[in-house]
């Protein structure tokens, strides 16, 4: 079962309430998304740590309900 972009946004915002989240469905199939996440919580963290924060916010759904998510992170 695929996730829709509102679900993805909701999980990220739950973990990072100040986040600005922009999500695109890349293939129109509900399985391949791109997310740009801007948050003050990324301050002082490496890109790898920032991406892990986003993956962790999805609570194990990456690779299951969510097939592919390209992530861009920015500090606010």
Distance between the termini: 33 Å
- Topology as a string of helices (H) and strands (E): HEEHE
Shape: globular
Helical residues, percent:
25-40%
Instruction: Please indicate the percent range of residues in DSSP E strands (runs of 2 or more).
Output: 25-35%
Could you tell me the radius of gyration in angstroms?
Answer: 12 Å
Average pLDDT works out at 93
Uncertain runs? none
Counting DSSP E segments of at least 2 residues, the number of strands comes to 3
List the helices and strands and how they pair.
Elements: H1 5-15, E1 20-25, E2 32-39, H2 47-57, E3 68-75
Parallel strand pairs: 2-3
Antiparallel strand pairs: 1-2
Task: Give a written overview of the molecule.
The protein is α+β, with helices and mostly antiparallel strands and 76 residues long. The chain is 29% helix and 29% strand. It has two helices and three strands, in the order αββαβ. A three-stranded mixed sheet has the order 1-2-3. The longest helix has 11 residues, at 5-15. The chain is globular. The mean pLDDT is 93.
């Amino acid at each position: 079962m695929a996730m829709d972009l509102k679900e993805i946004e909701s999980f990220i915002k739950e973990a990072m309430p100040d986040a600005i989240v922009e999500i695109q469905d890349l293939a129109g199939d509900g399985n391949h998304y791109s997310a740009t996440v801007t948050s003050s919580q990324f301050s002082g963290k490496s890109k790898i740590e920032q991406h892990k924060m986003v993956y962790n916010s999805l609570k194990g759904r990456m690779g299951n309900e969510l097939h592919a998510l390209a992530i861009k992170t920015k500090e606010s």
